[in-house]
């Protein structure tokens, strides 16, 4: 069980040593932890649920992603707590306890990679591996005030990682420092060290920032001032993302309901994107795990049980339309960004909710949040969540998205911008923001 001195972040502690020539390697001297859906030879991969752990044998090999960071000189110190079957972005686990958010102890840490995010935020490790299907790296990174990177879909091996919904599953990682974030990414994606390329444009999704509970200036100004300082302000463009998506993704009409059309609380076309993504996720989750859930009938926490059984009852109706939405959205965002373009959106719409928050309110918030998260989810684009300090004593963040395969470019860009952004955040906080 997770120990309190470790902020409840760890399922179990062990040490996997790097290869002997560690002093010459890119991750020498760094420590890391892994989410409990990565195989580690000799250990049961628990998938956040005791019945899963009970019905599965110990792994007989280690996931390639874990091996690659070990071979690059890092030391693994254990496995981290996660949400059951990776089916949540809240970070609460009824069986193993909820890892404590070091940035806001009375708030949820975000999931499903909650333990990995907390281990980094609490400085227990230098970086940690998680996974991101619907938002499971981006959300806890935002809630815990650290950097979180979701790579382009399929560019990092997910062999030896329990699938959640395979056409969305991306592994991902957390760090407090952009240099380490970049270095880990280059190891995992086997990228050469290259000079940073300047972005061609930074597009601010105005409507998404207006939807946020945080004043939009508090989120965008640190980025805009940093971009202006480094690259010049003429790079910045503004867009109404919801209108653009509505026009360019005609298949979304199938998902436009009365609920998604509620203009006051969401952006209708992005809410429809979220519906398409969640339907496809449910369908794929059922394909992977339906038989096990139906046979074992695992003990599942409140909220989690309803979500998982809803997935098990999903049919393939409208799945073809979801694939059309995905194809159209990818083409639309490729056209919007062009080469070396970046889209800026809030990572989430509100600061982290309180622990044991009213489940109905929490579910409503998560549905809204998915309208932002589904942009990278459905396109397979890479996305990074960048902390912007505290607003009202709670962590806030901004995200940058780039085209599929632009991971090295985006990692370099974050490293270039980060120091300036943090300086601007400090100025904003002093002004009482």
Short description:
It contains 13 helices and 11 strands. The chain has 433 residues and is an alpha/beta fold.
Describe the structure.
The chain is an alpha/beta fold. It has two domains: 180 residues, Amidase signature (AS) domain (Amidase signature (AS) enzymes, Alpha-Beta Complex); 231 residues, Alpha-Beta Complex (Amidase signature (AS) enzymes), CATH 3.90.1300.10. It contains 13 helices and eleven strands. Strands 1-3-2-4-6-5-10-11-9-7-8 form an eleven-stranded mixed β-sheet, with helices on both faces. β10 and β11 form a beta hairpin. α5 packs antiparallel against α13, α9 packs across α10 and α9 crosses α11. The longest helix has 29 residues. 56% of the residues are buried.
Compute the number of helices: 13
Largest sheet: 11 strands, mixed
What overall form do the CA principal axes indicate?
globular
Mean pLDDT: 94
Q: Which structural class matches the secondary elements?
A: alpha/beta
Q: Percent of residues in beta strands? A: 15-25%
Helix fraction, binned, reads: 25-40%
CATH H-level name of the largest domain... which superfamily?
A: Amidase signature (AS) domain
The stretches of 5 or more residues where confidence is low (pLDDT under 50) are none
Rounded to the nearest angstrom, the radius of gyration is 20 Å
CATH domain class of the largest domain: Alpha Beta
Q: What fold name stands as the CATH topology of the largest domain?
A: Amidase signature (AS) enzymes
Estimate nothing, just give the exact number of structural domains. 2
Strand order of the largest sheet: 1-3-2-4-6-5-10-11-9-7-8
